[in-house]
């Protein structure tokens, strides 16, 4: 369901293969009956006289304390207890991805992922017996349809039959019932992704809803029902079109096709070919489900507030009934070695870059571990060769290294974007030059030990998240790695030597690579998936299956919300008069986060943005800029200065035992940066190139440039940049003077870490008094430039021409000035109307009418007191569907459908979500910062929780009719002028084309 995950495997997991310093012996143990049922899991009502014992494996020293169980039918279960909040991150991982697709039906695994959300013979149906008759007819017709590729007239007649019968079948369906269940129990992040190796389904659930989650997931794994097949197929068409509009996707596909001419990694894509998408086979999809969605090929990975014994019993109760079965073995095609460089070229409207790819061994091999190190030697965000030699020295606009690691082979990608006037061939040579340095051993001896230490710190921080913990588990399963071996990978990583990496680089990085040059231009091969004729199917919002009713009626322990008490949860003191410190203690690990927060930014002076960026290129004292970055990396610390329109965050984070030396370095940089004229000249040239590249990015054009133009007019926060002539005239000393002046302004300090605020030991106050250099009296921040919000009285349609297959549309309405009293109503309205896959907007525009892959609507509260709220409704659709899509959204905004069942689901979703959400750790301080901006001194979730539970539909309808319906709206459209229907656009207001110069200001 996640579009990006369908194309490129998420590399996030590569950071977290487990902590070093672990034992590797596997222990087999028995899970005894739980003494009491915890809030994390409700045990079955009737327990046998002699409770079953469950054997499990653990690894001594495992920081996650994972227990691995194997049910009698072969299902693998990973459990980790982490009681940060009464929630559990869940993944259902299937070892089946696009590499397992039949060559004649590519995209099958991904499409199946979509269909698994449609329910079963119990879930999602009002009358299965009648529905099945129609679904069987549809399946047979699709097989006929596939055989009519060369007879357009016959295909049209067959598709008309499919469309007609689908309407009958849909009358028995309950669309989005799975999403409704997840919403009702308070699940978050309901989604799935498909990649080459895997299909993974994810939910973040309240711990007291575990039995309901277990029951419905077991039901989904029993069978796949191709319900609402043709409307969901249309959504996949839209997803394909989005990919066709992405130059990166086309570039990555070209790279894989050249690297893997034999293996499915390159011969077929996750989304599939247009021909295969337009000729789907329900029969093949069912066959695939029966082959791969079997216990021996599936793992459940759970991390959170759970009781091991009660949880495994629940899982066995529901999943244990699935019949034992193993999946077919995958025969790995062997690729021939690349003997010479291969070059490919891609054309598209977005900015230029070059991408180099090397093919290496699979993820679980020793070379896979070495590849992780190679990636970090080149790019680690601070002290990698590419970081310092290319980015820090500004030899390219941007460059980086990343990996796509899979079971059979792995791909190492290095890429770069050119500076103004720089050839892509020059960027390529610079990238290869950094590889040559590794091959020659031309990098410092301390770099690998520092990478190992920083990698540990990254994983320590990541493992504060249940998502990262559970992700590590499913990553091990997909790799077919025993947990002890998975943990051993980190020990192997920590043992890597410089000599080993030099040999590895020489063995694997020669002339055996693929270059893909992405150039700006018109793609002569641009195609799109043709829109079929689809009759909207009924939404059936107020009906429910018997399974749904039984499931939601299951009892569960009531959990009470815990709200932040800023006065109790945050300690406040003064470093000196007028310089407050707010701190919360980190009792979990030895990491810290320290921030200086200033209430000024680019609205006060647009040079602040430039000065913030300039700091990364400057040295101080005896340190050059590169040496400074290296010193921070050695200390396991990093710094960042970020500026927004009205705030600057100066942040230092890392290992708390190194706080003092890191803070001394950081303060020296802030108070005595060394001007660097060459660095400034290069940075200014880079800024100008980035401005031009921004004009090529449709997301920037629509969501930043056009939205700001409409909200504020031509002069707005987005266009508040230094003009080119003035930019080129700025002197280095002007920016360093601005940086040095920053600590003299009034600000506040936030600290989250293990140091106490007071006591006999060295406190954070002591450290800051000794190191944070400020004058005796801080200066008030200067006045900011005010950008007045436009009244938006006239109905208008603004459009920008962009060469793309789809069209993207935003409906924008200005609301009231922020008031905390509106927040509960707004929360319920958003959850009901446009919040997610179970919302009215998604059900109507995607599920019922198949008008868009992505559709949403949200009334957005302002993030600062005194500012206006806005309602923003979005549709991404094929250009030829624009009339129906716009009419559909306008109809919903005008007359909000009444659905009592959806309203109750929305209320339950808010109640269950807030009652199990815990704002802890450093997030307490960030929550306080958000509250302060809104003039609040308490956790506003308290009002939302209390105010939504008894809210009636009449109250919601009143809000919609007074704040949304009939309000003057401005519509923003980005699309190709050759495809847009301007006659249709004119129905919504005066149509006006905006030029890029108008909306960017340059």
Report on the structure:
The protein is built from 37 helices and 25 strands. With 1002 residues, it is an alpha+beta fold. Strands 1-2-3-4-8-5-7-6 form an eight-stranded mixed beta sheet, with helices on both faces. Helix 1 (108-115) crosses helix 10, helix 29 (823-833) packs across helix 32 (900-916) and helix 30 (840-848) packs antiparallel against helix 31. The radius of gyration is 29 Å and the shape is globular. The two termini are 38 Å apart. 50% of the residues are buried.
Topology:
Blueprint: E1 27-31, E2 54-58, E3 67-70, E4 76-81, E5 87-94, H1 108-115, H2 128-146, H3 152-170, H4 177-184, E6 188-194, E7 199-206, H5 210-222, H6 229-244, H7 247-259, H8 264-267, H9 274-277, H10 282-292, E8 298-304, H11 308-319, E9 342-348, E10 353-361, H12 366-378, H13 385-392, E11 398-405, E12 409-417, H14 424-439, H15 447-462, H16 466-479, H17 483-494, H18 498-508, E13 513-520, H19 546-552, H20 566-569, E14 571-576, E15 579-585, E16 591-598, H21 607-614, H22 625-634, E17 637-643, E18 648-655, H23 659-671, H24 677-694, H25 698-712, H26 724-729, H27 732-741, E19 748-753, H28 764-771, E20 796-801, E21 806-817, H29 823-833, H30 840-848, E22 854-860, E23 868-878, H31 882-894, H32 900-916, H33 923-933, H34 941-948, H35 953-963, E24 969-975, H36 982-985, E25 990-993, H37 996-1000
Parallel strand pairs: 4-8, 9-13, 15-19, 20-24, 20-25
Antiparallel strand pairs: 1-2, 2-3, 3-4, 5-7, 5-8, 6-7, 10-12, 10-13, 11-12, 14-15, 16-18, 16-19, 17-18, 21-23, 21-24, 22-23
Helix pairs in contact: 1-10, 2-3, 4-32, 5-11, 12-17, 12-18, 13-14, 14-18, 21-27, 29-32, 29-34, 29-35, 30-31, 32-34
């Amino acid at each position: 369901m996640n579009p990006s995950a369908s194309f490129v495997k998420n590399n996030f997991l590569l950071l977290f293969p487990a902590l070093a310093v672990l034992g590797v012996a596997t222990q087999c143990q028995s899970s005894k009956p739980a003494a009491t049922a915890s809030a994390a899991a409700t045990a079955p009502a009737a327990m046998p006289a002699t409770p079953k014992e469950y054997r499990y494996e653990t690894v001594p020293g495992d920081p996650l304390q994972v227990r691995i169980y194997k049910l009698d039918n072969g299902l693998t279960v990973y459990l980790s207890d982490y009681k940060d909040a009464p929630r559990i991150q869940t993944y259902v991982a299937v070892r089946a991805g696009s590499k397992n697709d039949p060559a004649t039906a590519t995209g099958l695994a991904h499409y199946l992922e979509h269909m698994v959300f449609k329910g079963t013979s119990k879930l999602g149906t009002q009358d299965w017996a009648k529905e099945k008759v129609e679904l069987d007819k549809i399946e047979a017709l699709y097989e006929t349809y596939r055989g009519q590729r060369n007879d357009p007239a016959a295909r049209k007649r067959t598709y008309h039959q499919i469309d007609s019968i689908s309407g009958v079948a849909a009358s028995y369906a309950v669309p989005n019932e799975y999403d409704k269940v997840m919403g009702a129990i308070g699940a978050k992040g309901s989604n799935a992704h498909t990649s080459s190796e895997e299909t993974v389904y994810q939910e973040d659930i309240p711990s007291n809803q575990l039995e309901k989650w277990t029951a419905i997931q077991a039901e989904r794994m029993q069978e796949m029902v191709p319900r609402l097949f043709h409307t969901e197929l249309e959504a996949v068409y839209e997803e394909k079109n989005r990919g066709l509009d992405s130059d990166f996707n086309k570039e990555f596909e070209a790279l894989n096709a050249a690297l893997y001419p034999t293996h499915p990694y390159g011969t077929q894509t996750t989304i599939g070919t247009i021909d295969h998408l337009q000729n789907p086979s329900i029969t093949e999809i069912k066959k695939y489900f029966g082959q791969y969605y079997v216990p021996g090929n599936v793992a459940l990975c759970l991390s959170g507030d759970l009781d091991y014994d009660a949880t495994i019993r629940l899982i066995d109760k529901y999943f244990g009934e699935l019949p034992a079965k193993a999946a077919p073995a995958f025969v790995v095609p062997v690729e021939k070695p690349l003997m010479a460089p291969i070059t490919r070229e891609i054309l598209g409207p977005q900015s230029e870059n070059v991408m180099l790819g090397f093919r290496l061994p699979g993820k679980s091999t020793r070379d896979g571990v070495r590849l992780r190190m190679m990636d970090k030697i080149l790019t680690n965000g601070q002290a990698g060769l590419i970081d310092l030699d290319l980015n820090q020295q500004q030899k390219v606009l941007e460059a980086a290294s990343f990996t796509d690691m899979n079971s059979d082979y792995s791909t190492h990608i290095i890429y770069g974007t050119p500076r103004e006037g720089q050839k892509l061939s020059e960027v390529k040579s610079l990238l290869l030059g950094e590889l040559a340095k590794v091959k020659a051993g031309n990098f410092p001896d301390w770099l690998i030990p520092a990478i190992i230490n920083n990698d540990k710190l990254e994983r320590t921080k990541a493992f504060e998240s249940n998502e990262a913990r559970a992700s590590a588990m499913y990553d091990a399963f997909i790799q077919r790695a025993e947990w002890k071996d998975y943990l051993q990978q980190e020990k192997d990583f920590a043992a890597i030597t410089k000599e080993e990496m030099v040999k590895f680089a020489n063995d694997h990085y020669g002339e055996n690579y693929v270059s893909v040059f992405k150039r700006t231009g018109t793609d002569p091969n641009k195609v799109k998936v043709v829109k079929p004729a689809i009759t909207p199917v009924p939404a059936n919002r107020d009906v429910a299956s018997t399974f749904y009713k039984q499931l939601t009626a299951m009892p569960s322990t009531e959990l009470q919300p815990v709200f932040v008490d800023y006065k109790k949860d945050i300690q406040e003191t003064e470093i000196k008069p007028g310089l407050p410190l707010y701190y919360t203690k980190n009792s979990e690990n030895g990491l810290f986060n320290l921030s200086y927060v200033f209430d000024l930014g680019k609205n006060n002076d647009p040079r602040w943005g430039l000065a913030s960026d300039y700091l990364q290129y400057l040295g101080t004292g005896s340190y050059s800029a590169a040496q400074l970055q290296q010193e921070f990396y050695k200390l396991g610390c990093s710094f960042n200065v970020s500026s927004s329109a009205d705030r600057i965050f100066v942040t230092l984070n890392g290992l708390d035992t190194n706080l003092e030396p890191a803070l001394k370095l950081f303060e020296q940089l802030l108070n005595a940066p060394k001007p660097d004229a060459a660095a400034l000249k290069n940075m200014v040239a880079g800024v100008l190139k980035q401005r031009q590249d921004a004009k090529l990015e449709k997301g920037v054009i629509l969501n930043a440039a056009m939205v700001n133009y409409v909200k504020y007019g031509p002069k707005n926060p987005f266009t508040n940049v230094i003009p080119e002539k003035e930019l080129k005239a700025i002197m280095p000393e002007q920016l360093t003077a601005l940086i040095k002046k920053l600590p003299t302004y009034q600000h506040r300090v936030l600290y989250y870490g293990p140091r106490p605020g007071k006591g006999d030991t060295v406190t954070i106050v002591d450290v800051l008094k000794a190191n944070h250099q400020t004058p005796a009296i801080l200066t008030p921040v200067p006045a900011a430039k005010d950008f007045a919000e436009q009244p938006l009285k006239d109905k208008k349609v603004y459009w920008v021409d962009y060469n793309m297959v789809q069209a993207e549309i935003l409906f924008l309405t200005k609301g009231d000035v922020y008031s905390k009293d509106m927040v509960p109503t707004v929360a319920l309205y958003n959850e009901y109307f446009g919040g997610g896959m179970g919302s009215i907007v998604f059900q109507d525009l995607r599920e019922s009418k198949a008008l868009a892959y992505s559709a949403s609507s949200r009334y957005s509260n302002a993030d600062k007191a005194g500012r206006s709220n806005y309602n923003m409704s979005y549709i991404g659709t094929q250009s030829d569907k624009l009339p129906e899509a716009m009419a559909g959204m306008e109809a919903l905004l005008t007359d909000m459908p009444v659905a009592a069942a959806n309203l109750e689901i929305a209320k339950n979703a808010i109640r269950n979500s807030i009652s199990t959400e815990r704002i802890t750790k450093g997030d307490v301080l960030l929550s306080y910062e958000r509250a302060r901006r809104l003039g609040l001194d308490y956790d506003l979730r308290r009002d939302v929780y209390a105010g939504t539970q008894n809210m009636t539909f009449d109250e919601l309808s009143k809000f919609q009719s007074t704040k949304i319906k009939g309000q003057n709206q401005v519509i923003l459209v980005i699309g190709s002028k050759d495809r847009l229907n301007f006659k249709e656009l004119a129905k919504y207001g005066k149509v006006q084309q905006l030029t890029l110069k108008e909306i960017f200001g340059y």
